[in-house]
Design goal:
With about 300 residues, the protein is of the alpha/beta class. The chain has 2 domains: about 80 residues, Four Helix Bundle (Hemerythrin (Met), subunit A); about 190 residues, Rossmann fold (3-Layer(aba) Sandwich), CATH 3.40.50. The chain has an 8-stranded mixed beta sheet with strand order 3-2-4-1-5-6-7-8, with helices on both faces. α7 links the parallel β2 and β3. α8 runs parallel beside α9.
Length: about 300
């Protein structure tokens, strides 16, 4: 039987959870006032999991308030509820009723897994009966468009691509024009990975965004920033810089199954107030999930 969302989170976040539980131990089951030594160990454990200083302070403060209001609530439960509360903002990744075509721009740094995620999402929408088009706007990385072609064939969706080195904005223009002609419901634009510190590449991303709006007014309707979960708090800096160039709708966090730094997702959502819509929990075509705050929080703290 396939694992449910809770089981997938729990398994994927094992290393992060072990970092937290290993630092606090049995104290997670304590109810009532928490002593200073336990609070210090908890703070160190959360920092080791890359929750970040400001968010660690906020999370502990909220948990202590909850425990003060309910003497029966243990530290684990208070942390779970407080973490879920910090992540309460929601964003659905998908077309709302009446939006056709719905254009999503998929962006992020090199190696975050954008192309793979774009292929997985295309397969998801195709299975749901949505005519879907992939646009290979990563014209810098030689293997990117070939990789996306494989995903398009596997998913049974269309793809628009160009020769390596072509102008990405021109590829996007052609892709969105094709989407209109083919009456597509969903258009996923896979952009080149770019370091957030490279101003010329960030300016190019802004140009791609403008071209989307020229072809289809209001596009892109969703800008999904893909972050590598193994980067920890470095991903927070990346998200800040991308957000200065293009408005971000939501975040996708990949590779959560291979890191002890998964607490950074809490810091990003808390500090930037950008909702998480998608998480990657493995390499397989179905190893992703719509994000659920309560399941993530349980995956961080529940040990049994």
């Amino acid at each position: 039987m396939p694992m449910g969302l809770w089981e997938r989170f729990r398994e994927g976040l094992r290393r992060t959870r072990d970092t937290i539980a290993g630092g606090v131990g049995a104290a997670l089951g304590v109810s009532g006032p928490v002593d200073a030594a336990t609070l210090e160990r908890l703070e160190e454990a959360l920092l080791a999991a890359d929750v970040g200083p400001a968010t660690t302070d906020e999370l502990i403060a909220r948990a202590r308030r909850r425990m003060g209001e309910s003497r029966e609530l243990d530290l684990r439960g208070a942390l779970e509820r407080s973490a879920a509360e910090l992540l309460a903002a929601r964003a659905e990744f998908g077309p709302p009723p009446g939006q056709r075509p719905w254009v999503a721009l998929i962006i992020g740094v090199n190696g975050a897994g954008k192309t793979t995620l774009a292929g997985k999402l295309a397969a998801h929408f195709a299975r749901a009966g949505e005519p879907t088009l992939l646009v290979a706007a990563d014209t810098f990385r030689a293997a990117a468009s070939e990789q996306l072609v494989v995903w398009a064939e596997r998913a049974g969706v269309g793809i628009v691509r160009a020769a390596d080195g072509a102008d990405p904005a021109a590829v996007v223009h052609d892709g969105l024009t094709a989407a209109l002609a083919r009456n597509c419901s969903v258009v996923l634009v896979d952009t080149a990975g770019r370091l957030h510190t490279r101003q010329n590449l960030m300016a190019e991303l802004e140009k791609v965004r403008r071209v989307c709006g020229r072809v289809i007014p209001g596009a892109p309707h969703h800008t999904l920033l893909v972050l590598d979960g193994t980067q920890g708090l470095n991903a927070l800096a990346q998200a800040r810089e991308f957000g200065r160039v293009v408005p971000l709708t939501s975040l996708a966090v990949t590779k959560l199954d291979g890191t002890s730094r998964g607490g950074a997702l809490l810091a990003i959502a808390d500090q930037l107030r950008i909702p998480v819509s998608v998480v990657g929990l493995g390499e397989g075509p179905d190893d992703w999930e719509p994000f659920d705050a309560a399941s993530y929080a349980r995956g961080l703290f529940e040990t049994a």
